[in-house]
């Protein structure tokens, strides 16, 4: 098989697990991991790795040509909370890296792109529940603006140049292998770490902040399924809504207390509350389900079992 994959941002929360999964599926030498710095030992030992700055077009092109890459997964991004602190850095990273891979595909140097969008494309004027695929989108964060703009460019490059770009709007992703960095949904990971270590957690969102979330295994399955689906099934070339579970801090606490009854949560909302309040509570993902057979598997309590069991071992 000719397929050769480059993962840009392979040491991040999604990239780490995506790299391991794709290497197990296609063989370790077919999957080149890259990031601006080295990742954990397991990832570094698992196959070829390149130090690569996603903002440097020449460097990305050189790695693509040298390794005869066909598919790029562009996982490097600055997430919502960090991008509010560094707006121009967030914008530049999120947009420039996308243009680099879109232009490589336009010039036929690669064949296929995966680019992650987010529920952050929605804003305060979007319907909050069962948010449709097509609806009002007025994102109020730098990250959301960059993701919505990116979606427009993906669709444009598909329509104008035939670029095979595929994308999903990730909800908050929960995993135990690699920590996330700088997101608003990160509390839903930190809470498990603190429950095990200290039996208490101070949450930066209030108790009623319901957000769409997903366990990482489901997210990896969605990512690889959309990339492997026949091109004609991918009818949306901006980005697909994707849903699994929705919960608030009170509900995840109750789920943890089934295992750790003495666990306590308290609330000290900070600037991330406004970001969370601007996002939907639940997502309608019927297009993804109909077009390429998406369906989530892991519910809240099962996720809690997996998280506590695996973090408890560390
Ligand atoms: C964030 O919180 O910024 C991300 C996201 C929802 O895209 N996890």
TrEMBL record:
Which Gene3D superfamilies does the annotation name? NAD(P)-binding Rossmann-like Domain
Location of the NAD-dependent epimerase/dehydratase domain: 5-241
Q: Tell me which positions the record assigns to the signal sequence.
A: none
Pfam assignment, any one: Epimerase
Q: Which SUPFAM superfamilies match?
A: NAD(P)-binding Rossmann-fold domains
GO terms of molecular function: L-threonine 3-dehydrogenase activity
Assigned protein family: Belongs to the NAD(P)-dependent epimerase/dehydratase family.
Superkingdom: Bacteria
User: Matching InterPro entries, A to Z?
Assistant: Epimerase_deHydtase, NAD(P)-bd_dom_sf, NAD(P)_epim/dehydratase
Q: What is this protein called?
A: NAD-dependent epimerase
Q: Which residues form a coiled coil?
A: none
Give the GO biological process terms: L-threonine catabolic process
